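Input sequence (357 aa), recorded before submission:
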Amino acid sequence: MQINFKNKRIASILGVLPEQEYLFDDEVNNYSFPVRQTLRLKKVMGFNKHRLAKDSSCVSDFAVYAVNYMLENNWLDRDEIGAVIAVTLCPDYFVPHISNIVQAKCDLSNNILCLDIAQGCCGFLIGLMQSFMLLDKLENKKIILINGDVLSHKVSKRDRNDFPLIGDGAAVTVLENCDNYNNNIYFEMHMDGKRGDALKVPAGGFRMPCSPETAVMQDQGDGNFRALDNMHMDGSAVFNFVQAEVPPMLESAFKNSNLELNNIDYFLFHQPNKFMLKKLAEKANLPEDKLPMNLVENYGNLSGASIPFIIALNLQEEFLKYEYKCCLSAFGSGLSWGVMFMNIGKLEHCEIIESNL
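Predicted structure, token format:
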């Protein structure tokens, strides 16, 4: 699927992280592997530390904290908001939806659209797509896009394949129309549900409700312990999928958009881990000096919030002052993979804050 948009912009980005920071070195005894063997992963995968939410904290808590921060600090006014879109794999409840919870707790108007989208790794791109389509009908209204997850609640602490890379938090992005902003946006997305089991939480939905049986931790045959309630990523399957599908997608997107690699100032990619990203850069001939890779080592894999956090972590000052041609790409759960070319910059606000959530 290919879509083109015009005259849309990112106005502001706010990332909210939990205060609780955990070091990879302090967690090596969680796993049933020799410590020295586990520590080898640190350099290769880019593991160092990650931020984990409290057991009682949910995505809406981070989103409400962020939106209220924006309102209190005059980043936007309540009457400017035309929609709240929440993209997550971690709903507080089946109902009500996170967007409605944010609407209520932030005292927003009843005359706005509240929409939740279930999406993980590609959540920022999917959220941008939905927001840009909606902005065509909202004229001077702005959209609040929430990308957040608390996947540490669904990952086994005894699973060395999954737990070290998980990070919790949320990003809130303000999007708007801008007729004077020359921004031709190209978007391409692909999905393959046939390979969806490569990243899965088996229990918890209606197909297999959570029960005492689904909570039983078991050795998976490779020394990792997890239950059916836990999320698992088949690392080899996802790695091979990314290496096979993303480079040709990027080549196609450059051709279709009449852009070249040297037209791009920054490559802002979802970050499952540093190893996967470096191998992708090599295969797709991407310049590593334009491709930040330090998200997982600082905060963990933030799922759909990765890309806005990459901007706020690495490029805050630049993006507040100047405008850049960016290539955004994400890949993962679904399985899904996508790319977007757009100008980002001269932001009104860009910041990362902490909360006690």
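Checked by second reader. The mean pLDDT is 95.
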